[in-house]
Design brief:
The protein is mostly helical. The chain has 16 helices and two strands. Strands 1-2 form a two-stranded antiparallel sheet. The N and C termini lie far apart (145 Å).
Length: 508
């Protein structure tokens, strides 16, 4: 038994019973204090391991692998290529507000190639079936639009081609900066001398539409072509002239505003057909609605909207062409308009002679020359030509409708001639325009006679000097109204007969 008198330092390595007992309890309590944290740590690690085991790693790994492979396979230019824009979703309640017309959206179209052999005759029939396919508007190169973009369309030979390009150059040089052609003030754009032959100021919409049609007929669009800029500016200017409520281009002034409206509508519908800009659909459709509102019930058109019951063949011809262009562009039209127009043409056409009158059966055309009123007014068969061409484009054929052959015979006897004397003029480019397109559709000997006369009259009398180079003097019918811009625009349209529209009748 140890001596209690000994000091504790001598026996510090020996535990007393009570000391041994106290140390064990303390150790046990210490372990209990640490146990909850250990268990929590163990549980957390268990959960983490479980998540790792059940996570769908197969969904991530292939995607990462595909991304790596894609980046390795793509060329640098593909990597930086802008993604294709997706068309906007159609909302249940479309917004009525029209977008602002901008170059970028006007030009957002599929580009049409303009290469091709200009020395091939366009002789392909219009594509498709039904009344919608019997108008020479649309379908692309070699189709309804003949060869205006190349392909199989003949450009009339080198002399015709050069004459057309000279006319387009004159129109380009005399377009205002805002896009219009100033009917009476175009000479402000002259560079070397002042061109003569101003028209009347109220025809700016009409002559701008004709000039735009000349460029569209050449294959220039809001997207492509040598004269793309001229087309874009003209389209924008016309849209700016439209009343957004009624759809009328320009103002109700005089007796000619429906002429101008119909020509502007025709041009805008063609521009929309080729451009497919969504910004043009609304203006074009409103213009069509205005045309339909101006028609006399069950009949045709004349000078006013709302209609007053009068009809005439000249206004009706332009309206039919505008509606046909709209139909081809996929716009909404009232097809009963065609029935009314055909009924009107039948009413004013003498079945024995084939002559179509202005407002009465078989009467001569209404015609104004570029001279003073004291000179005699020589009548032409312009309205017979209007009737013939519209009948063809509305589905009639010589085999089923004998009047077409009768009218073609009448035009055949009076081909174009440029005859100007101090007391009269036989120049009538309006007649030549409708007549050339109608006889081209008839083909054969009809077209051969007209083609020779047309080229002689148009090409030989085109101005070749000064600022007038490429234009035609306004010495013919309607020259006093439309001036040099009108004469040049419609002259260019006459030269485009070779390729503007393909043949409906399949004639040769």
């Amino acid at each position: 038994m140890p001596d209690p008198t000994e000091t504790p330092e001598l026996h510090s390595n020996i535990l007393r019973p009570w000391e041994e007992h106290a140390s064990f309890n303390d150790l046990l309590m210490e372990q209990f204090r640490k146990a909850p944290w250990f268990l929590l740590s163990l549980a957390a690690h268990g959960v983490l391991v479980g998540l790792i085991l059940i996570f769908p790693w197969d969904l991530i790994q292939p995607q990462q692998k595909a991304e790596v492979i894609t980046k390795m396979e793509m060329q640098p230019e593909e990597i930086f290529e802008e993604p294709e824009e997706k068309p906007p979703e159609i909302e249940e309640e479309p917004i009525e507000e029209e977008p602002v017309l901008q170059d970028a959206l006007i030009e957002d179209v599929t580009e049409v190639p303009d290469e091709g052999d200009p020395n091939l005759e366009s002789d392909s029939p219009f594509e498709g079936d039904g009344l919608n396919d019997l108008i020479g508007l649309g379908g692309g190169a070699g189709g309804k639009y003949g060869g205006r973009f190349g392909g199989r369309g003949r450009r009339g030979g080198s002399a015709t081609e050069q004459s057309l390009l000279a006319a387009l150059e004159w129109l380009k040089d005399h377009q205002d900066g805002d896009g219009r052609w100033d009917c009476d003030g175009f000479s402000k754009n002259c560079k070397t001398n002042i061109c003569d032959g101003p028209g009347e100021a109220l025809h700016d919409v009409g002559v701008t539409g004709l000039a735009l049609l000349a460029f569209l007929g050449n294959g220039d669009t809001t997207r492509s072509g040598k004269y793309k800029d001229q087309v874009v500016r003209a389209v924008r200017w016309l849209v700016d002239q439209q009343d957004p409520d009624s759809g009328l281009f320009g103002e109700k002034s005089g007796n000619s505003y429906l002429y101008s409206h119909s020509i502007a509508t025709l041009a805008l519908c063609e521009a929309y057909y080729f451009g497919r800009s969504p910004q043009l659909r609304g203006p074009a459709q409103r213009a069509v609605y205005y045309i339909q509102a101006a028609r006399n019930p069950y009949k045709a058109w004349r000078y006013y909207e709302p209609p007053d019951g009068d009809n005439d063949t000249s206004v009706t011809g332009w309206m039919i062409f505008a509606l046909k262009a709209a139909e081809d562009a996929g716009l909404d039209i009232d097809k009963t308009c065609y029935d009314g127009a055909l009924a009107w043409f039948d009413e004013v056409t003498d079945p024995a002679t084939g002559r179509t009158g202005y407002q009465q059966r078989g009467e001569p055309s209404s015609r104004r020359t570029g001279f003073e009123s004291r000179f005699p007014v020589d009548k032409t068969e312009s309205l017979t030509a209007v009737s013939l061409l519209c009948r063809i484009f509305m589905g009639q054929t010589p085999e089923k409708d004998a009047i077409l052959r009768t009218q073609a015979d009448r035009l055949r006897r009076t081909p174009p001639t440029w005859e100007v004397t101090p007391d009269r003029s036989l120049v009538d480019a309006y007649y030549w325009y409708y007549g050339a397109f109608a006889m081209f559709q008839m083909g054969g000997e009809d077209w051969r006679i007209w083609r020779q006369a047309l080229e002689k009259a148009i090409i030989e009398n085109q101005r070749k000097d000064g600022d007038e180079k490429g234009s035609w003097d306004p010495v013919g019918a309607w020259g006093r109204d439309g001036g040099r811009v009108y004469s040049t625009a419609i002259g260019a349209l006459c030269l485009e007969v070779y390729f503007r529209y393909a043949r409906v009748l399949g004639a040769r």
